[in-house]
Design brief:
Distance between the termini of chain B: 17 Å
Order of helices and strands of chain A: HHHHHHHHHHHHHHHH
CATH architecture of chain B: 3-Layer(aba) Sandwich
CATH architecture of the largest domain in chain A: Orthogonal Bundle
Mean pLDDT of chain A: 86
Mean pLDDT of chain B: 89
Oligomer: heterodimer
CATH topology of the largest domain in chain A: MetI-like fold
Low-confidence stretches of chain B: 1-13
Shape of chain A: flat
Low-confidence stretches of chain A: none
Largest sheet of chain A: none
Number of strands of chain B: 10
Number of helices of chain A: 16
Number of helices of chain B: 11
Bound molecules: adenosine-5'-triphosphate, magnesium ion
Helix content of chain B: 25-40%
Strand content of chain B: 15-25%
Strand order of the largest sheet of chain B: 6-7-8-3-9-10
CATH topology of chain B: Rossmann fold
Structural class of chain B: alpha/beta
Largest sheet of chain B: 6 strands, mixed
Chain lengths: 461, 265
C-alpha cells in the first residue's frame, strides 16, 4: 500500500468518524427535552471532535513512521544472505545500497552494478513488510482514537472549546513556520561563516581592502578576501546614488498625490505606483544594462571623463533608485496622510498657503515616518541583486567616480556560488560570510526603521 | 422663528466689523446653512449656540473661508469684512486669514517649539523685521494669551508637550501673533477641564475690545458669561440673535427658550 492510498484511507475514515460523532450528538440533542440545553456544543463540533481525534494521532504516527522506517528497512535488508557479499568499504557499499533502494521503490528501472540487483529482492521484501505494518498500525490508530472520542461524547462534553483550541494551535504553528525558517537560515549562515573564519581571519575579511578571492593563500599569506570594496560598492550604489534619485522623487510624488492631485488622478496613480513596485527586478536589470549603461558611458566619454566603463555604478544606482521610488513614495504618502488634518487646518487658518503648509508643517510632522520609509528602502536597495549583477560589473574598485565600475556584496555572492566550486573551499564559504553581513545589516535597518515608524504613529494616536 | 429668518438683524451700535447677508452653505446637495444674516461687532463677543449639527461650525468657517478646504462645500450670499466682500475674486484668502484668525475645538499646536508655534504666523506674513521684533511679538502674544509666565523659561520646548489647556492658550497666542481683527473660536474649551476653561474665559475677557470675537459653545453658562450677543441656530437657520442678557432672560422665540432651559428634545 503506498503512502498516498494510506493517507486517503485515513482521511476517509476521518470523514466517517465525523459522521458518526455528529450522528451521536444529534441523537443526544433530539432525545433531550429542550434542545438548547441538551448539549454544551452544537452536533457539528462533536463531529469535528471525533474526526480530529481519529486523524491527528494517525497522521503523527505516519510522519514518525516515515522517518524511522527507512533505517529499519535497510537493517532488515542487510540481514538477508545477499548482503553478505557486499563490500565492507563505505563508499562502494553506500552506492550499491542506494541503487538497490531506488530500484525497489520503482524510481529506477535497471542497475549498473550487478551486486545491487541481488539486493533488490531483500529490499522489496523489507519495504512491503514495514509498509504493511505501518499502514495497519495507522488504521488501527484511526479506529481506536476515533472510537475513544466517540465514546466520550456526552451532553456536557465541551467539544466547541476543544475544537477552538485545536484551531488556535494550527494558526500558531502556521505563524511559527516563517519564523523558524528564518532562524534556520540564519543559523546555517552563522555555521558556514564560522567555517570560513577558521580559514580567513575576520579582521582581514571585514577590514581588508583587496578583493581578489583565491582558493589557496598567496605567497605572503594574502587571501584576497578583503570585503571593504564590496561594502563600499554596495553603499555607493544602494545607499547613495539610488537614494539621491529615490528620496526627492518619491517625496515629491507623495506630496503631489496627497496634497494636490485631484481624487480621480490619485485613485489611478496610487495603484499604478504600487504595480511598479511589483515589476520583476530582472526587467529593471535589462533596462540598466542595455539602455542606461551604454548611454551613460557615451556621455561620460563625450565629456572626457576618464575611466568610464560600460558597467557603471551610476547606471545601476539610477535604475535602482527608480525601482525604489514606489517604496519611498508610498511610505511618505502614508506618513503625510497620517498627520492629523487639524494640523493642516491650523496652518491654513493662519493664512499659510498650501505649499507653506506642506513645507513647514506637514513634512516636518511626517519626517520620522518618511525617515523610516527611507531606511526600509535602503535595506531593500542593498539587498537587491539582479540590477547590480546585470549592470554594476565585477571589478572591486574603491572609487567615488560614478562612471566607473564597482561591485556589490550581492553580485559577488552570485559570482562565488555559480560555476563549479568545491563546497568547502574558502571561495564558496566567503559567500556565506557576505550573506551573513548583508543579513545582519538589513535586519538592523529594518528594526530601526520599524521602531522609528512605530514611535511616530504613537505620537499621533 | 419664521419672521426673523429673512430679515437682516442689526448688531447694535457702531458700524459692524463683519456682515453676512443671506448666506447659504451646501455640502454637495445637502444644505447646511439656510439664509443666515448676522452682523458681528468689534466691541462684542458674539456667541453661537444651538444643538449639535445645526451648522454653527459650518457658519463660523465661512467667516475666514476655511470651508474652501472642503471640496464639496459651496457658499452663496454675501460676507463682508469692513465692507469688503471676502468671497470676491479680488480678496486674497491668505490676507483674509491673517485678518480673521481661528482657534479650533481640539488644541492643534504644530509639532514645533513653543516659540516657533507663535512665530509661525508672523514669519509667513513677514510681520517682523528682525529677530528682536519677532521676540517681541512672541512675548506680547504669549502675555496676552496668559501663557507667558508659564512658558517663558521653556520657549524651545515642543508645543505638543504642554497640557491641553496650555496648548489651547498657545493656539490663541498663535492666532493673536498676526494681530488679527477678528478671532473665531470653535468650542475652544470643549476639550478642557473647568480650571483651564476658566482661564480661557478670563483671557477672552481681557482681549475683548481689541479683537472682534466669535465663539461657538455648547455650554450655556459659558455663552452667558463671556458674550454680549448670542445667536441661536437650529437646523441650519438662525432662530434668534440679540443681546445675550435678553436671549437668556427673555427670548422671543419659544424654541430658544426651550433650548436654553434645557427642555430642548
Ligand atoms: N465636511 C462635511 N461634509 C459634509 N457634510 C458636513 C461636513 N461638515 C459638516 N457637515 C454637515 O453639516 C451640518 C452642520 O455641521 P456643523 O459641523 O456645522 O454642525 P455644528 O453645529 O458645528 O455641530 P457641533 O455642535 O456638533 O459641532 C451637519 O449636518 C453635518 O453633517
Ligand atoms: Mg461644530
Amino acid at each position: 500500500m503506498t503512502s498516498t492510498t494510506l493517507l486517503l484511507l485515513v482521511f476517509g475514515m476521518g470523514a466517517i468518524a465525523w459522521f458518526f460523532g455528529r450522528l451521536k450528538a444529534a441523537g443526544l440533542r433530539s432525545a433531550a427535552s429542550s434542545p438548547k440545553r441538551a448539549l454544551h456544543s452544537l452536533p457539528n463540533y462533536h463531529g469535528w471532535y471525533v474526526a480530529l481525534w481519529a486523524i491527528i494521532p494517525a497522521l503523527l504516527f505516519v510522519t514518525v513512521w516515515n522517518i524511522v522506517s527507512p533505517s529499519l528497512i535497510t537493517e532488515a535488508a542487510l540481514t538477508s544472505p545477499a548482503a553478505q557479499q557486499l563490500p565492507q568499504e563505505g563508499f562502494a557499499r553506500g552506492t550499491i545500497l542506494s541503487e538497490a533502494r531506488s530500484i525497489a521503490y520503482g524510481n529506477q528501472s535497471n542497475a549498473f552494478n550487478p551486486l545491487s540487483r541481488t539486493m533488490v529482492g531483500p529490499y522489496e521484501e523489507a519495504i512491503s513488510y514495514y509498509q504493511t505494518i505501518g499502514a495497519l498500525a495507522a488504521l488501527l490508530l484511526v479506529f481506536a482514537c476515533g472510537a475513544f472520542a466517540w465514546l466520550r461524547i456526552k451532553p456536557d462534553l465541551r467539544a466547541r472549546t476543544k475544537i477552538e483550541r485545536v484551531t488556535m494551535m494550527a494558526l500558531l504553528i502556521a505563524s511559527l513556520i516563517a519564523i523558524v525558517t528564518t532562524v534556520g537560515i540564519f543559523l546555517s549562515l552563522v555555521f558556514e561563516t564560522a567555517r570560513f573564519f577558521s580559514m580567513v581571519s575576520p579582521i582581514d575579511f571585514l577590514f581588508g581592502t583587496e578583493w581578489n578571492p583565491k582558493a589557496v593563500a598567496g605567497p605572503r599569506g594574502e587571501t584576497g578576501f578583503g570585503a571593504i570594496p564590496l561594502f563600499w560598492g554596495t553603499v555607493f550604489i544602494g545607499a547613495i546614488i539610488a537614494m539621491i534619485v529615490a528620496i526627492p522623487l518619491g517625496l515629491m510624488s507623495a506630496v503631489y498625490l496627497t496634497q494636490y492631485a485631484p481624487p480621480r488622478f490619485r485613485a489611478w496613480m496610487k495603484p499604478i505606483l504600487e504595480v511598479l513596485a511589483g515589476v520583476p527586478t530582472v526587467v529593471y536589470g535589462y533596462f540598466a544594462a542595455l539602455t542606461v549603461a551604454p548611454a551613460l558611458r557615451d556621455f561620460a566619454v563625450s565629456i572626457g571623463i576618464a575611466g568610464a566603463s560600460s558597467e557603471s555604478a551610476l547606471a545601476a544606482g539610477l535604475v535602482m533608485g527608480i525601482m525604489i521610488i514606489p517604496f519611498v513614495s508610498s511610505m511618505a504618502d502614508d506618513s503625510i496622510a497620517a498627520v492629523p488634518s487639524a494640523m493642516r487646518d491650523g496652518s491654513l487658518a493662519m493664512g499659510a498657503t498650501k505649499s507653506e503648509t506642506i513645507k513647514k508643517v506637514l513634512i516636518p510632522a511626517a519626517l520620522p515616518g518618511v525617515v523610516g520609509g527611507v531606511l526600509l528602502a535602503v535595506s531593500r536597495a542593498i539587498g537587491e541583486t539582479m540590477i547590480v549583477v546585470m549592470a554594476a560589473g565585477l571589478a572591486a574598485n574603491m572609487t567615488a567616480n560614478p562612471f566607473s565600475s564597482v561591485t556589490t556584496v550581492t553580485t559577488q555572492i552570485v559570482k562565488l556560488l555559480t560555476g563549479d566550486q568545491e563546497f568547502d573551499s574558502p571561495k564558496t564559504l566567503a559567500a556565506f560570510a557576505l550573506g551573513l553581513v548583508l543579513f545582519i545589516v538589513t535586519l538592523l535597518l529594518n528594526l530601526i526603521a520599524l521602531r522609528v515608524v512605530k514611535k511616530y504613529r504613537e505620537a499621533y494616536e | 422663528m419664521t419672521n426673523s429668518k429673512n430679515e437682516m438683524i442689526s448688531a447694535g451700535d457702531g458700524s459692524p466689523k463683519m456682515t453676512t447677508r443671506n448666506v447659504n452653505v451646501f455640502y454637495g446637495d445637502k444644505q447646511a446653512i439656510n439664509d443666515v444674516s448676522i452682523d458681528v461687532n468689534m466691541d462684542n463677543v458674539t456667541a453661537f449656540i444651538g444643538p449639535s449639527g445645526c451648522g454653527k461650525s459650518t457658519f463660523l468657517r465661512c467667516l475666514n473661508r476655511m470651508n474652501d478646504t472642503i471640496p464639496i462645500a459651496k457658499v452663496t450670499g454675501e460676507i463682508t469684512l469692513e465692507g469688503e466682500d471676502i468671497y470676491s475674486p479680488t480678496m486674497d484668502v491668505v490676507q483674509l486669514r491673517a485678518r480673521v484668525g481661528m482657534v479650533f475645538q481640539k488644541p492643534n499646536p504644530f509639532p514645533k517649539s513653543i516659540y516657533d508655534n507663535v512665530a509661525y504666523g508672523p514669519r509667513i506674513h513677514g510681520l517682523a523685521a528682525g529677530k528682536d521684533e519677532l521676540d517681541n511679538i512672541v512675548e506680547t502674544s504669549l502675555q496676552r494669551a496668559g501663557l507667558w509666565g508659564e512658558v517663558k523659561d521653556r520657549l524651545l520646548d515642543s508645543g505638543t508637550a504642554l497640557s491641553g489647556g496650555q496648548q489651547q492658550r498657545l493656539c490663541i497666542a498663535r492666532a493673536i501673533a498676526v494681530d488679527p481683527e477678528v478671532i473665531l473660536m470653535d468650542e475652544p474649551c470643549s476639550a478642557l477641564d473647568p480650571i483651564a476653561t476658566a482661564k480661557i474665559e478670563e483671557l477672552i475677557h481681557e482681549i475683548r475690545g481689541r479683537y472682534a470675537i466669535v465663539i461657538v459653545t455648547h455650554n450655556m453658562q459659558q455663552a452667558a458669561r463671556v458674550s454680549q450677543r448670542t445667536a441661536f441656530f437650529h437646523l441650519g437657520t438662525l432662530v434668534e440673535y440679540g443681546e445675550t442678557s435678553e436671549i437668556f432672560t427673555n427670548p422671543t422665540e419659544t424654541q430658544t427658550r426651550d433650548y436654553i432651559t434645557g427642555r430642548y428634545g
